[in-house]
Design brief:
The complex is a heterotrimer of chains A (about 240), B (about 260) and C (about 425). Chain A is α/β, with parallel strands linked by helices and about 240 residues long. Chain A is built from 8 helices and 10 strands. In chain A, the strands form 2 sheets. Chain A has a 6-stranded mixed sheet. In chain A, strands 2-1-4-5 form a 4-stranded antiparallel sheet, with helices on one face. Chain A starts with a strand and ends with a helix. The mean pLDDT of chain A is about 85. By secondary structure, chain B is mainly α. Chain B is about 85% helix and about 0% strand. Chain B is globular. Chain C has a 25-stranded parallel sheet that branches. In chain C, strands 3-6-9-12-15-18-21-24-27-29-32-35-38 form a 13-stranded parallel sheet, with no helix packed on it. In chain C, strand 1, helix 2 and strand 2 form a beta-alpha-beta unit. Chain C is elongated, with a radius of gyration of 27 Å. The model of chain C has no long low-confidence stretch (mean pLDDT about 90). The chains are: A alpha/beta (about 240), B mainly alpha (about 260), C mainly beta (about 425). At the A-B interface, helix 2 of A face helix 1 and helix 4 of B.
């Protein structure tokens, strides 16, 4: 579970996150969407500790993230761009992660099997194709069976087979009671995976609720049209 | 095993296998071996290596360091999402860069000396000083590379600054020194010259090496003053202390930036 | 009775004297024999006698030789002055001293205590001795036609020039030959003052406190085939003319004020076929006039040549200048010396007409050399990248070189 209270972040004069309050519950897949520059990446980076908030607090499993780095043992992260040290082998990268993390929840190698990564274990990361790198990237996020998964554009760059294997895995983990955050531009994925949706625009939370409710509220046929109308109405508000 | 050592372990494995480090090692090895073949005497090899150390190490280290820091940016971010303290990660990154470069240097010039040996026992300390000052310069310019790459988000700009810093220390500084000494040639300049050269790590390393090579005999009175100063305990302390400062200060500033930075 | 006896002895002595006058005799000096000291033997001998010293340890001093005798040691007997005075003092012609170990004469500021001192004598030969730890080794004053050969002369380990004498010292002497000696740890290895027409051949003079060989006002001498190594200065030639310097090696004379060959007020001399290797300065010329410097190898020195502007009419021909940090340093813009057909390892010109000579002149005084000459602290920039760039720039644009001095026909390949 992640709770965010009155979170603010500015880059110089640019106010990127404005008093954000959010809660990501267990057993839920929450999609965070918003146009480029809306602040969703910043939000994720602050949760991961890559950036520091100006004010507000974040609790991960009821522990304030300012208290230390140990909370990251509970988080599996799949960054959007996977660039690994070119001269390490896949196996060595896994060993490295194992060395660096506590293994209190054991090791989950499901995705290595379904992605057929076992054959690649002795290859150097620099020689892998983009798709393979992305599969390694996804598999690493799930490797330590973390309570919380943060997946940034998880299906981008994956072939259809891997993509559906990943989605199966996400749903499986959700059912186990995990807190899962996804950002994606592929709205069909979100419809398929996410129960909750957070829509961020210019640093403010425009919508925070279930996907179903939002579609019903706007009376559209699918998520894509719903989001489109949401953005339009906000644009009009802005102009008015 | 402590986390920093773990990071260093994997960083080392990565960087040591990098083709640039291998090329760097191979180049130093071939040059040293080649000089042994052509000149035949270890004293000449040592003297020629002086140029290599003073010119090559700074430029290679600073440019490789900067490029490496930028290209490992995403992986650094990935590691930051792991339960690792930033300070620890920084130390790991720094050592993972400085150590392979130092190792490539030490082995590159060291291996030919292992089987060719030195002509006279007295050259042994010269070789040691040559190795130590090379490693010191590697650490100095790794510190600068890390600092520069953390200070600028733009890779091209960072590399540009790095090359400028090198150019300044290796060339412009000495040019200015020459010009200054020309303008003030009526005054006794030996002592101010010591102060000025001690501020520049490349000059400092060069003077220390030249004194070891006994080139100070060519410098007449100036050489005698320098030899007296740098040969004494105060000079040794001050010059090695100054090199340490050149390693530590940029490294600490870089660490401070790294710890506070938004990735 | 008493008177008769005395007369008898006198007669006996006269007979003996006559006898030795007719044919030379051998006198044996032996610790366990009848005659146990050299002085004793010298009292008994006559001109032409041979004194044979058996192996042993002879503590003597101030041995004056007034007769033309040969003193020969068997298995190197030791003659020790115990640092109290001088040893052999030759005042007669045709004296020969051979096969001795002559050691430990005293240091003095008033007397020139020497292992062997030859005073106003001719045709003496000092050969195959070990002359060790003396103030002066061999000292010849007003001597002529003497030979100093095959000796090993080692001075005392002394730190200062003033408490050490010279290995071989010539004072107002002429026609002296000094050859095949090995001299070290003296002040000057060999020193000549007001001495002329002498030859110094095939000696090794090394580790001396000052010069390996030193001429002062000593004209018409030749030195050939010697090695001068690890001295503060290899050879110094001062206030002297007509010196021929051939086939010598000047090596490792290295230090802040060191030279391979130091020339000061010298005229009409020749320097040929020598090797100058790893000296701080190979050749230093001050007020040196009409010298021919030809066919020398000048390699790996700090400076190959330092030429003061009062040196004129010197001709440098067919020399090899290889790997010197600086080729030539000179204090002034104009110089009255010529360089022809030398090989310079730093020369990077081309030879389009293939005549073996570069088509562009070589300027041996580099920009940095000129800068340093006027601004010596700038020397600390030696071997810096800035200076190396300056030197490359100088090769591309030779006009930035400030001194006019040039070799108009530099060789493309080294001589020999």
């Amino acid at each position: 579970m992640i709770r965010i209270e009155r979170l603010n972040k500015s880059f110089g004069k640019l106010h990127v996150l404005k008093d954000v309050n959010l809660e990501f519950e267990n057993s839920k897949v929450t999609a965070i969407i918003g146009p480029n520059g809306s602040g969703k990446t910043t939000l994720i980076k602050i949760i991961l500790g890559l950036m520091k908030a100006d004010s507000g607090k974040i609790l991960v499993n009821n522990i304030n993230i300012k208290k230390g780095v140990d909370y990251k043992n509970n988080i599996g992260n799949m960054p959007q761009i996977a660039r690994f040290p070119e001269n390490l082998r896949v196996g060595e990268l896994i060993d490295m992660m194992k060395d660096l993390r506590s293994k209190k929840n054991g090791v989950d190698k499901d995705l290595f099997a379904s992605f057929k990564l076992d054959n690649e274990i002795n290859k150097k990361l620099g020689t892998l194709s983009g798709g393979t790198k992305q599969r390694v990237n996804a598999a690493l996020a799930f490797l330590f069976n973390p309570d919380i998964l943060i997946l940034d554009e998880p299906t981008a760059g994956l072939d259809p087979i891997s993509s559906s294997a990943l989605k199966d895995k996400i749903l499986k983990e959700q059912k186990k009671g995990k807190t899962i955050l996804i950002t994606s531009h592929i709205l069909s994925d979100i419809e398929e995976l996410a129960e909750n949706l957070v829509f961020i625009l210019e640093g403010k939370i425009i919508y925070n609720g279930t996907v179903k409710l939002l579609i019903e509220e706007k009376g559209k046929s699918n998520l894509e049209r719903t989001i489109a109308s949401l953005m339009e109405s906000n644009a009009n508000e802005h102009n008015a | 095993m402590n986390t920093m050592l773990k990071i260093i372990k994997y960083e080392l494995r990565d960087v040591i296998r990098s083709k640039w480090i291998l090329i760097y090692f191979g180049f130093l090895f071939l040059i040293t071996e080649g000089m042994f073949q052509f000149s035949g005497s270890s004293s000449k090899v040592l003297l020629s290596l002086l140029n290599i150390v003073l010119i090559l190490i700074p430029i290679i280290t600073i440019s490789y360091g900067i490029i490496y820091m930028y290209s490992s940016r995403e992986f650094t971010e990935m590691l930051l999402a792991q339960p690792i303290k930033r300070k620890t990660l920084f130390s790991g990154l720094y050592s993972g860069l400085a150590l392979p470069l130092s190792i490539a240097y030490l082995f590159g010039i060291g291996i030919p000396f292992i089987y060719h040996g030195v002509d006279e026992v007295s050259q042994f300390p010269v070789l040691i000083i040559l190795m130590l000052s090379g490693v010191a310069l590697t650490f100095v310019f790794t510190s600068l590379a890390v600092l520069i790459s953390l200070s600028s988000e733009d890779k091209v700009k960072g590399l540009g600054i790095g090359i400028f810093v090198w150019l300044f220390m290796a060339v412009v500084y000495d040019g200015a020194l020459l010009f200054g000494s020309y303008l003030l040639s009526e005054y006794p300049l030996e002592k101010p010259m010591i102060a000025v050269t001690i501020l520049n790590p490349i000059d400092l390393a060069r003077i220390l090496l030249m004194l070891k090579f006994d080139i100070s005999a060519l410098m007449g009175y100036t050489g005698a003053v320098f030899k007296k100063f740098f040969g004494g305990p105060l000079g040794m302390l001050l010059s090695s202390g100054m090199l340490m400062l050149w390693i530590i200060i940029p490294c600490l500033i870089g660490k401070r930036i790294f710890v506070r930075k938004d990735f | 009775m008493k008177i008769i006896f005395q007369i008898n002895i006198i007669i006996l002595l006269i007979i003996t004297f006559r006898h030795t006058n007719l044919e030379a005799k051998d006198i044996i000096i032996d610790k366990s024999g009848a005659i146990t000291s050299i002085k004793q033997a010298l009292g008994l001998c006559q001109n032409g006698d041979r004194l044979i010293i058996k192996k042993g340890y002879y503590k003597e001093r101030d041995i004056e030789i007034n007769k033309s005798v040969q003193i020969t040691g068997e298995d190197f007997p030791v003659v020790d002055a115990e640092f109290k005075s001088g040893l052999f003092h030759i005042k007669a012609d045709d004296v020969r001293i051979e096969g001795l170990i002559i050691k430990n004469t005293a240091m003095s500021f008033v007397a020139e205590y020497a292992g062997i001192k030859i005073d106003s004598a001719k045709n003496c030969i000092i050969k195959g001795n070990k002359i060790l730890y003396n103030y002066f080794g061999v000292y010849i004053a007003f001597g002529a036609d003497c030979k100093i050969e095959d000796n090993i002369i080692v001075g005392r380990q002394s730190k200062s020039e003033t408490t050490s004498g010279n290995g071989v010292h010539l004072w107002y002497s002429k026609n002296i030959t000094i050859s095949n000696n090995k001299i070290s740890n003296q002040r000057d290895g060999i020193y000549l003052e007001f001495s002329q027409n002498s030859a110094i051949d095939n000696n090794i003079s090394e580790n001396n406190l000052r010069y390996g060989l030193h001429f002062m006002f000593s004209h018409r001498c030749v030195y050939n085939g010697n090695t001068f190594r690890n001295n503060v200065g290899g050879v110094a030639v001062m206030y002297t003319k007509y010196i021929h310097m051939y086939n010598n090696k000047f090596e490792n004379n290295w230090g802040p004020a060191s030279y391979g060959l130091l020339l000061k007020d010298i005229t009409d001399s020749e320097i040929k076929y020598n090797l100058f290797h790893e000296n701080s300065t190979a050749i230093y010329l001050e007020n040196s006039v009409r010298l021919l410097i030809e066919h020398n190898n000048i390699t790996d020195n700090g400076w190959a040549l330092k030429i003061k502007s009062n040196s004129t009419d010197n001709d440098f021909v067919n020399n090899n200048f290889i790997n010197n940090t600086f080729d030539v340093a000179t204090g002034s813009k104009r110089n009255y010396v010529t360089f022809r057909k030398n090989y310079w390892s730093k020369y990077s010109g081309y030879d389009l007409n293939r005549d073996g000579y570069g088509d562009v002149p070589y300027k041996p005084v580099g920009l940095f050399s000129a800068i340093v000459e006027n601004n010596s602290p700038a020397m600390i920039l030696l071997r810096s990248l800035f200076i190396q760039i300056l030197e490359v720039a100088e090769k591309i644009v030779p006009s930035i070189t400030p001194v006019d001095l040039e070799d108009e026909s530099p060789l493309m390949r080294s001589v020999r």
